[in-house]
Design a protein that fits this description.
The protein is α/β, with parallel strands linked by helices. It contains five helices and eight strands. It has a five-stranded parallel β-sheet, sandwiched between helices. The protein has a three-stranded antiparallel β-sheet with strand order 1-8-7. α4 links the parallel β4 and β5. The chain is globular, with a radius of gyration of 17 Å.
C-alpha cells in the first residue's frame, strides 16, 4: 500500500527574528493609537502561535504605554468548518481568558491570515464566551487568498503568495527560533 507524505521545503526566508520583532512592535503601536481605552482591551491569541505573538504584543504595549493588557488563549477546534477533514479525534487545547469579555475590545491575534476561516471560527468561539463590544484582528502575516469577507485591522507584513506556497511562521516560544518563510509542499509517496 502506498501513502502520500508531505513535507515543507523552504524557498525563501521573508522575515528574520529582527524583522518579526519590528512588525510586532508596529502592531503594538497601532493598537495603542487606535484603542481609545487600553484598560478595556483584551488580547486573545488563537492557538497555537497566536498566543505567544499576543504575549509579545502585550509586553510591547506595556513597555510603550505603561498599561498592562491581559492576554488570553482561544482554541477554535470545535468551531472549524473543516473539522471532519483534519482529524477524526482532534486534540483540543485550552481556552483561557481571565475576566469577562462582555463589552470589551477584544483583539484576536494569529500568525497568518489566509482564507479567513480561522478568524471566522475564532469569532464564533468568542461569542460562545460572551458579547465583546468590539472585535479586532491582528495578524503577523496576511498572505491573501480570502474565501470569506474578513479583513485584518493590524498587519505585520503583507506577503503575496501563490496557492501552491505555504507561509511557515516560527516563534521562539513554540519553535525554538523566530522567522517567517515561504515554503513549497513536497509530496512523496511511501510504499508500505
Amino acid at each position: 500500500m502506498e501513502s502520500n507524505t508531505n513535507r515543507l521545503e523552504t524557498k525563501v526566508q521573508v522575515l528574520d527574528d529582527a524583522a518579526v520583532g519590528r512588525a510586532l512592535m508596529r502592531i503594538s503601536y497601532e493598537i495603542v493609537e487606535k484603542c481609545s481605552d487600553l484598560s478595556n482591551v483584551i488580547l486573545v491569541g488563537i492557538r497555537t502561535r497566536g498566543v505567544p505573538i499576543a504575549k509579545i504584543i502585550a509586553k510591547n504595549i506595556e513597555k510603550n504605554s505603561k498599561v498592562s493588557v491581559p492576554v488570553g488563549s482561544l482554541d477554535i477546534t470545535f468551531y472549524r468548518d473543516d473539522l471532519e477533514k483534519i482529524d477524526e479525534s482532534p486534540k483540543v487545547g485550552d481556552t483561557k481568558i481571565d475576566g469577562d469579555i462582555n463589552g470589551k475590545e477584544v483583539v484576536l491575534v494569529d500568525d497568518v491570515l489566509y482564507t479567513g476561516r480561522t478568524a471566522r471560527a475564532a469569532i464564533d468561539a468568542l461569542f460562545s464566551l460572551g458579547r465583546p463590544g468590539k472585535i479586532r484582528l491582528a495578524v503577523l502575516v496576511d498572505r491573501g487568498h480570502r474565501e470569506l469577507p474578513i479583513r485584518p485591522d493590524y498587519v505585520g507584513k503583507n506577503i503575496p503568495t501563490s496557492l501552491s506556497e505555504v507561509i511557515k511562521v516560527n516563534i521562539d516560544a513554540t519553535d525554538g527560533k523566530t522567522g517567517v518563510d515561504i515554503c513549497k509542499v513536497i509530496n512523496s509517496k511511501k510504499g508500505e
